[in-house]
Structures are given as structure tokens and as C-alpha cells.
Task: inverse folding
């Protein structure tokens, strides 16, 4: 065989290998499920008796906390990480079988921690003792789910008084009794005209007054149900569902809801679902997945895929664009607003090479940027930012517009991380909860 022919064959073989690799990556991101890694335990027996429901001083009952801003009421956190943080407990059974990836963050009230999981055929809802990790109750329902990034739930539960609401990737909205897990009602948004988005339903339910509100897509872009009975109260708009949680916002003294749907940011009247205004924001694949951040009458939102970010000044009837740029491109990592500045990650969430930035909210001016802590998610506690990168490493940051201030690191706070650790860290009642697929780890956070 001629030397030139050998060289051509070698080059073709290399190109074929790279082609197969990239094709697999594309398949995995669109259709595949992240395989579970590390220890996978069996679901244990439930506690012998159901403890009474309690409340804490710094509960985290819903996505991004009680004020929907990513900030916990926990104070007195430990800032000397030279010896790490004390691990209180860990479970490794939230996902059963092999291809059952689930991403939901926990919701915590007192001694109740609610976190969804998955087995081969069913969505699973675990209620754990937030102090000890013991299983209090387990709810389940059969759900046929696609495999793109796993069939398990993405949405965080919402605890409201003596009930908790969950929303599965296939559009199952379920109300459970918080005390013992009795299923009170179960609705499928597809029955109202909903159309599942490419990567499954991800929008955390919003409980507001007598309603629970989710995105359904299709001819039921936003749907409100009676929180006690499950009766459909209204549906509003048509189009592609986004992947972001609905949040309330007080505008001109009245509560409105912000919906980050597939092609824009919409403001709705919660009483009847009437669309007040929509700021167009079309992204590649219709992925609007970060939660809008609110400061007074200013709303900041951001998306990946080179779309960028935007700050809006809003009223009860309209909005005005204050600025728009690519200074932050947050794919699905929610920023935190602190004293007039935006702190958060920018970049693709599947690669640990993003930028963590401080940006002035009023102007969009980048104050500083660092690549020192990779790519991940963040939460705020007691004057500090706790950041979890997609490899499972923790960083403690002091938010300061004068410069990046890294105060501590804990390597491998989550163990056996082979795929991105996308679930945001949650701090409630002095404890830090980290989730990676089937794992949930609890650390002591206060001194």
C-alpha cells in the first residue's frame, strides 16, 4: 500500500472516531440519559411512625426560596472551610435502575424535605427527615417519559401549608398531603392542550393565592389550577413552553406573574391569566431556562446560545428596555442580585470553563469576571455566595464589586460526579443540601 494511501486511511479513521464521538454527544444532549455513576442504594423502609410536621426559622419551601431570589434566611454560616464542612447524612437511592436521571432540587419546611426521583416506569416523590435523612413517606405514579437528559423530574416541588405540589417532565402536576404523602389530586397538562417541550417540562409550580400555576405549552402555554381541588381555573396564551419557573412580581402595588416562555418574557395578570405584555426573546431551541431576577421595577433575564441578557424597567402595562448585551449568557444558571449588582455564571452549562461575573444592574457594565471557579450554580447565604461547579466542587465567594474574592473551597463535596452536577445548592435551617442524580448530601452550614 502506498504511503499516501496509508496517510489518507489514518486521517479518515481519525475523522471517523471524532465524528462518532460528536454524534454521541449530540445524541446524549438531545435524546440520551446521563448514566448514573457511583453508589446506587436501595430505597429503605419508611420511619416506623410519621413525625408531626414542623416549621423552621429559615425554610426553603420552593424554587429559589421564599422570596424567589436565591437567598436563604439562614445566618451564622461557617466561613472557615480549611477543614471542610461536617457531613450530616447522605442518601443514594433517588434514581433507581440505570437511565433514570433526575435533576429536581429539594424543597424544605422544618423536618420535611421533598425531592423527586425516578425508577424505570414511575416518578417518585421522596419525603425525607431534613435533620436525619430518614425516609418519612414515598409517593409515586406511572409516567411515560422521554430520555433526553433522563426521564426524571426537573422541577422543584412547592410546599404550601399542609400540601406539596410536584411537576414531572411529562406534565404530571400532583398535589400531595405534606404529612403522610396522600395523593390529593393529579392532573396532566396535556389534557388541557399542553405540548411537552424538547427537554421535558421543567417549570417549578408557582402557588399564588388559591392557584397553582405551570407552563403547559401548546394551546395552554400557562395554566392555573385550583390548589385545593385541581380544577382548571384558566389557561392563557399559546406557544412553546420555556424551562424557567414562574415568579411573582409586585408592579405598581399589584402582584403580577412573570413567565419566561419559549420565545419571550411575559407578564400576566394572576387572577385571569390575561397577558399584559411580552418582551420578545427568541433563543435557539426555544430554551429560556434561567429564572428572571427582580429588583424593584427592574427585571433582569438571560439565556445561553449566544443570546445574552437584558434588563427591563416595567410598569403595570408596559416595559422599557434599559440595556441589552452579551455580558452574561446564562444557559440555565440563575444569577443573584445583591446591592445593585448581578453575580452569576455565564457560559455553556455542560463545560466547566465558564465565567463568573459581577455586572452593574443599572447599566449592564461588567465590573469583573473570573474563570477561577468553572461553571455551575449559586445561592446566597448570610452575605456570601455558595457556588457549586458542575464537577461537584464548592466555592465560598464574598460578593464585592471591587473584585473577585474567593474565601474557601471544598473539592468533591459531591462524589462520583461523571456528568454535570446541574442541581443548585439549597440552604435551609442551617444546612446545605447538594443533589447529583441519585445522591443527596446534607452538610452542617452554621457554626
Result:
Amino acid at each position: 500500500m502506498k504511503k499516501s494511501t496509508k496517510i489518507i486511511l489514518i486521517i479518515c479513521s481519525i475523522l471517523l472516531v471524532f465524528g462518532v464521538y460528536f454524534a454521541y454527544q449530540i445524541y446524549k444532549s438531545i435524546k440520551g440519559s446521563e448514566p448514573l455513576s457511583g453508589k446506587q442504594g436501595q430505597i429503605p423502609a419508611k420511619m416506623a411512625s410519621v413525625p408531626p410536621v414542623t416549621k423552621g426559622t429559615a425554610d426553603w419551601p420552593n424554587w429559589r426560596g421564599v422570596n424567589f431570589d436565591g437567598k436563604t434566611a439562614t445566618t451564622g454560616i461557617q466561613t472557615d472551610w480549611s477543614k471542610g464542612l461536617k457531613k450530616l447524612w447522605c442518601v443514594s437511592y433517588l434514581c433507581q435502575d440505570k437511565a433514570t436521571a433526575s435533576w429536581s432540587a429539594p424543597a424544605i419546611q422544618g423536618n420535611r424535605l421533598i425531592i423527586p426521583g425516578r425508577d424505570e416506569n414511575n416518578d417518585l416523590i421522596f419525603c425525607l427527615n431534613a435533620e436525619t435523612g430518614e425516609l418519612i413517606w414515598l409517593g409515586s405514579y406511572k409516567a411515560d417519559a422521554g430520555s433526553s437528559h433522563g426521564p426524571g423530574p426537573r422541577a422543584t416541588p412547592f410546599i404550601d401549608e399542609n400540601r406539596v405540589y410536584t411537576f414531572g417532565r411529562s406534565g404530571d402536576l400532583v398535589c400531595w398531603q405534606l404529612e403522610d404523602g396522600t395523593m390529593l389530586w393529579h392532573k396532566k397538562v396535556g389534557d388541557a392542550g399542553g405540548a411537552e417541550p424538547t427537554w421535558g417540562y421543567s417549570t417549578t409550580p408557582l402557588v399564588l393565592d388559591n392557584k397553582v400555576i405551570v407552563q403547559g405549552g401548546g394551546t395552554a402555554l400557562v395554566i392555573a389550577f385550583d390548589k385545593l381541588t385541581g380544577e382548571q381555573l384558566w389557561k392563557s396564551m399559546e406557544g412553546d413552553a420555556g424551562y424557567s419557573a414562574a415568579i411573582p412580581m409586585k408592579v405598581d402595588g399589584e402582584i403580577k406573574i412573570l413567565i419566561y416562555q419559549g420565545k419571550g418574557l411575559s407578564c400576566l395578570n394572576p387572577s385571569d391569566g390575561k397577558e399584559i405584555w411580552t418582551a420578545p426573546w427568541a433563543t435557539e431551541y426555544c430554551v429560556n431556562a434561567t429564572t428572571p431576577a427582580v429588583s424593584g421595577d427592574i427585571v433582569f433575564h438571560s439565556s445561553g446560545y449566544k443570546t445574552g441578557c437584558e434588563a427591563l424597567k416595567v410598569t403595570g402595562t408596559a416595559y422599557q428596555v434599559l440595556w441589552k448585551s452579551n455580558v452574561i449568557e446564562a444557559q440555565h444558571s440563575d444569577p443573584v442580585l445583591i446591592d445593585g449588582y448581578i453575580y452569576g455564571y455565564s457560559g455553556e452549562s455542560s463545560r466547566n470553563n465558564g465565567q463568573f461575573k459581577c455586572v452593574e444592574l443599572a447599566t449592564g457594565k461588567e465590573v469583573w469576571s473570573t474563570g477561577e471557579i468553572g461553571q455551575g450554580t449559586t445561592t446566597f447565604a448570610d452575605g456570601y455566595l455558595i457556588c457549586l461547579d458542575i464537577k461537584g466542587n464548592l466555592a465560598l465567594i464574598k460578593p464585592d464589586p471591587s473584585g473577585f474574592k474567593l474565601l474557601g473551597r471544598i473539592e468533591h463535596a459531591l462524589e462520583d460526579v461523571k456528568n454535570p452536577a446541574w442541581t443548585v445548592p439549597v440552604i435551609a435551617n442551617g444546612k446545605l443540601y447538594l443533589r447529583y442524580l441519585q445522591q443527596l448530601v446534607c452538610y452542617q452550614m452554621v457554626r
In short: The domain at 31-444 is CATH 2.130.10.10 (Methylamine Dehydrogenase; Chain H). The helical segments are 3-30.
